[in-house]
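protien #1 (seq + structre)
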Amino acid sequence: MDKVSSECPYPGCFFCVMKEGNPSKRRASVLKFFRELPSQDDDGQVLPISGLWNTAMAHPNDPEFIELGIFECMAALIWKGLKNRRWLSHDQNIYIPYYAAHIIGSYTMNMEEFAESAVHAGVIPPLVELLRGRLTWVEQRVAVRALGHLATYASTFPAVASHGEILELSIQLAMSSLEIVYSHFYQYVDRRLSYHCDLLTRGMGGVEMESRKAEEWASQLQCWSLQLINCFAFKPEFLPTICKPEFLVKLPGMWGGLVNENSPAGVGLLRTICHQKLGRGPVAVCPGIIEALCNIARSSDDWQYMAIDCLLWLLQDPNTCHKVIDKVVPALVDLADITTLGDHKKLGDSIVNALQDCIQSQGSGKSSISSRIKEQIEDLLKSKQKFKWEKNMPKEDLHIKQAAALVVKLEGNSLFSSGNISGAASKYSEALSLCPMRSKKERVVLYSNRAQCYLLLQQPLAAISDATRALCLHRPVNRHAKSLWRRAQAYDMLGLAKESLLDAILFINECSQSNDPDLSLRQNKVPDYAERLVKKQMRAAWLFREAAIKHGGVHSQGDGGDIYGPETDDSEWETASESDIGNDGRDDMGDDDDWNNDDERKDYDKPSLKDIKHGYNVQLAEEEP
C-alpha cells in the first residue's frame, strides 16, 4: 500500500485505500476515510463518492461498508450540502448529496438489518430535508426512494412515520412531480442544469436522451412517492390523511407511463386502500374513481388484477356495495370468464361467487339491487349452470348445438357483408345463445364479431364489453389480436388514451407472433393503421401532457404543439376512424375457431365505401371481424 500511496497525489485516497492487501489495515483505513471525509474540503471528493455509488449498486447486500460507517458519512455529507452552499457550489460537490442519498437507498433496499443501521446512523432527517425540495427534484427522487425502502420494514417504519411531514410531503410530490420535472427541466432546454444533464445521461447523450431520461425519472419520482405512501396506507391511522378526494381522484391516472411499466403506481395504492374497511368508504364516494377502476379492470394493463381486487372488495363490503353496484357489476360480469392472470388463480370463480352473494344478500334484505343489475347477474349464473349441464350432455347433442350456432353465425356474416350491421349483431347474439359454453374458441369469435358491429353502430361501451369477454375467454388471456384492436378503437372513441394505447401495443405484439396471414406483420413492418393509432395515443397519454398544457407546451387538447419537438408531423395524428380508411391494414374478419373445417374459410375482398360505417373500415370475413 505504501508504494501505491506514494505515487498518488491525494493523501488518504479512497481508491488507494481499497487496494490495500491487508484486510485489517484496509478496514481501518476505510473506517478513517468515512469518519474524516465530511470534514474535508479537498477537491475531487465526488470521485470516491461516485465509486461508492457504483459499489452500492453492484453489491447492495455487502455488509462491509455498513459496519465501517458509510451511513453516518453519507448523512453528514447531505447535511453539509444543505448547510454550506459555498462548499456545494465548489468543484463538483453539487453531485455529492445526490450520490449520498442514492447510496443510502441502494444499501437499504434488500436488507432490513442495513435499514436499521441507517436509521441509527441518523439518515432520516437529512433525507426529509431533501424530500422537502431544499435542493432540486433530482435529490427529491433519490430521497423518496431511500425513505420508501426504510418504510418497507416493520422495524424501521416507526422511525419514518415519526416524522409526520413525510406522508404529506409524499402526497404532494406524487401529485406535483410531473409538473415539477416538466417546468424545472424538460420545458426549457437552454435552462437545464448541467449536473442534472450529466446525471441523467452519464455524459453520454444529447438533448433528446436527456428528455427521454427526464420522463423516466419523473415517472420514478411519482411512483416512488406512491410506494412510500403505500407503506403508510397499511396502517389505518394514516388513511384519513391519504384518502382525501383531491388525491384519490388522481390515483387511477398515475400509471407510470410506458417508461416505468413495472410499477403498479396509483392502482397499487388504491388496492392497499380498498383492502381496508376504512379506505373503502372514501373510494366508493369519490367521483369518477369507480369508473376508472372498471376501465383498468377491463384493460390489458399489467395491474388489471389489482383493479379487479378493488372492485370485488368494494362489492363485498355491505357499507359500500350499494354505492358502487350499478357500475361495478357490469364490469365484473364481462370479466367472469377469466381464469388466471399471472400468479392469480381462479379470478373468474371469485367474481362469480361475489356476484352470487349480491343476489343472496338481496334475498335476505341486506341490500337493494336494480332489476337491470339483477338480470345481468342472473344471466351470468345461468350461463355457469349451463356450462355444468353440458358436461353431462351427449356429444351428439353438443354437435347439433354447435352446428346450429354455426349456421346462425354465417347468416350474421352475410348480413354484415351486405351492410346490415344491426342485423348481423342480432344474429351473433342468437348464435351465442345457441353455442355451447364449452366451445370457447367459437364464443371468442362471436363476441369479437359482435364487438365489431357495435363499433360500426357507434356503441363503444358495448364494443368494449364484448371485446373484453372475448379476451377473457381466449387462451392465453388478453391475447386475442382482433379483439384487442377492436377494443383499442372503442377506447379511442371514448377518449381513453391509455387503455387504447395498451391494447394497440398488445395488438401489434400479437400480430408479430401470429400465423394468420391477415395479421402477421409483413417484413416486420407495423401496420400503418396501428402505427397511427399508437402515435396518436402516445401523444394523448404522454406523461407530461397535463403539465405541458398548463405551462404552454400544448396550446389545446386538439393541438399537438411542440410536445415531441420540431420533428412532429401533425399530419400523422389522425383519428382512429380516419386512419382506417383506405389502407391495406384493414381490420379483416377471419380467425381460427373450433370447427376445424378449412372448407368453410373464405376471404372477402376489401369493402367498398358503402360498407364503411362512420369511418371505421372493417370487413367481415367468414370466421371473424
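ok now protien #2
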Amino acid sequence: MSSSGDQNRKPMCRSVWLRRQRAKMKHHGSTVSLAGTRGPLCQKGDTKFAGNTAPVLELDKLPEDVLHHIHSLVPLRDAARAACVSHRFLRSWRRFPNLTFNWETFRLNLDGGPLCERAKKFANGIHHILQNHSGTGVKTLDLQVRPCGDVITANHLDIWLQAAVKSGIIKLALDIPRIQSIRFNFSCSLISSAASSLQSFSLSYCGFHPTPTIGCLRSLKNVSLTLVHISEDELGCFFDCTISLEKLEVALCDDITFLKIPSHLHQLRILRVFVCRRLQVIEINAPKVSTFLFRAPPMKISISNPSQLKNMTMNGQCYSGMFQYALTKLQPITSNLQTLTLLSSVEALNMPVSPDRFLHLRNLKIYCCGMDNFDYFSLVYFLKACPTLESFFLSAGPHFDLRRDSIIHEYSHADSLHRRRTAEFHQSNLKKVTITGFCSAKSLIELTCLILESSSSLRFLVLDTTGGYDNTGICDCMEREAVMEALRGVEAIKKYIKGKVPSSVHLEVLEPCGRCHIPKLRKLGPAR
C-alpha cells in the first residue's frame, strides 16, 4: 500500500521497476509506428511520399468538414506529417486549430547540443508554421518558449500573437523567457479581438496593463497570471471586464500589495494565490469560492461568505508560523471547511492552549517540512479543535538533523518511556490516520499513542517509515542516514506502539525496501 492510502496498489521496489521497464523496451523496441517516426515538421507542404508506405484510408471519399475534424484531433507534429502526404490535409493544416508549441513538439532534447542552436531551430519552426497559417480557425495557442532565452525577442512574440490571436480563439497561453519579463507587454488589443470567445487565458513573465477598452470578456472562465507585471488597480480593471470567471491563479506578481476579489464574480469557485512577495492583504468578496490555495507567509485574509469554502491549502513552506496562524486566525473564514492542508517549515514549540475550533472539518493534512526538532505532540491541539475529523494525514519527514536527545534509543526499555499527558479529549469520528516519515522522535510516538487511546472509531493506522512512494507505487530514494532512522522508527513502533493497537484497528507499517534501501547499509559500511 502506498503512503497516500491506496490499498489496491502494492509498492514496487525501484530495482524491480527498472528491470520491468527495460524488458518492455526490449519487447517493443522493434515495433515502430508511423506516428512515432522521427522527422522534421512539414514546413513547405511537400506532398511526396518518402520510402515505403502502408495502405491508407481513401481520403477523397470523406467530406471536407469530417476530414478537418479528424485532422484537428491529432497532435501538432502528426498533423504536420499528414499535411506532407495529402493535399486535403494540407488545406486543413493551414487552418489547424490547436497550436501548441513546446520543445517536445519539435523533439528537441533539452540536454543535447548547444542551447542557442536548438532555440533558434525552435523559433524558426514556430515562425514558419504561423506565417503559413491562414490565421483563421485557431482555437488554442500555447507558446511554451521559456527555455529559449534571448533568442526569442519581443518582436517575435508580437508577430506570432498577431498572426494567431483572432476572434474564435478559446485558449491562449504564453510562457516566455524570463529575460523578456521587463521587455514585453501583452497588448490589450489582442485580448479585445478575442473578447467574445476566449475562455482560458494564461500569462507568464511579461507585463499586462489592462484598461476598460478591452471590453467585456463574457466567456472567460480560467485566468492564470505568473510573474506578470500588473498593479492592483490594473488587476481590478481586468476583473471588471470579466463576469464568468471560475478559476483564478495569481502567482509571483510582486507589484500587488492588496488583492481584492470583487463580489460580481458569482461563478468563481477556485482561487490560487502563490508567493506575491509584496502582498499583505487578501479580501475575497466573490460569494461562491469553495477552494482556496495559498502559498506565502501568514497574512490578513478575509472572506465575505465563508460558508461556501470547503477546501483550503495554507502552504507556509519556507516561512514560519503557519500552524500557529491556522489555530488562532483561520476560524472566522472556515465555518464550513471540510478539508484543510497545512505546510510549515518553522514553528514555535508552544501551541495555543485554547485554539479555534473547526466544527465541520473532516480531512486534515499536515506537512512538517524539514522540522527535525518539532514537537509533534503539540499537534494534539489540532485534533482537539476538530471534533468531526475523519481522516488525519501527517508528513513528519524528511529528517536532516534529528537530535539525539529526542530519540528513543535502540536499547531503551519499553517502561522507560514517560509520556506526556494532556487534558482528556475524545475523537468519536476519526477513522484513518496516516503518518509518513515516521521516526523514533519521542514526541511523534507520544502523539501516536494518544491518538490510539482517544479515538474509539479508528479503523486504520498507517505508519510509513520511508520517504513514501510515487504515483506509480515505486519507492522513493533514501539516503543512508534516512534508512538508519527509518529502521529506528520500525524498532520504536514495535516497542511502544504495536502493543497499544486495539484489535479493531488495522495497523500497517511500511519499512525500508529490502532491494533498494537496505543494501546501502551493507555497501557503505557502518556510520561514522
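The longest strand covers residues 311-320.
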